[in-house]
Write a structure and sequence with these properties.
With 63 residues, this protein is mainly α. 84% of the residues lie in helices and 0% in strands. It has one domain (2-62). It has 2 helices and no strands. The radius of gyration is 15 Å and the shape is elongated.
Length: 63
């Protein structure tokens, strides 16, 4: 079951990454409000944390 869990997390992270890239690419003039910028930063912090958790789960599965 843990094999599926880390794969699902990785797939969800790829979706989140695509969303962040879409926001950044579609907003080249940097017209985001301060609140939107803070939300984007928070999303990135959460995304990095989830990548770490997925990596840990993948390593546990391999062992």
């Amino acid at each position: 079951m843990s094999d599926i869990r880390w794969i699902q997390r990785l797939e969800n992270l790829e979706k989140a990454n695509a969303l962040v890239q879409e926001v950044v690419i579609n907003n080249p003039a940097n017209t985001l409000s301060e609140l939107e910028k803070q939300g984007l930063i928070q999303r990135e912090e959460n995304r990095h944390h989830r990548y770490f958790v997925a990596l840990c789960l993948a390593c546990q599965t391999i062992q």
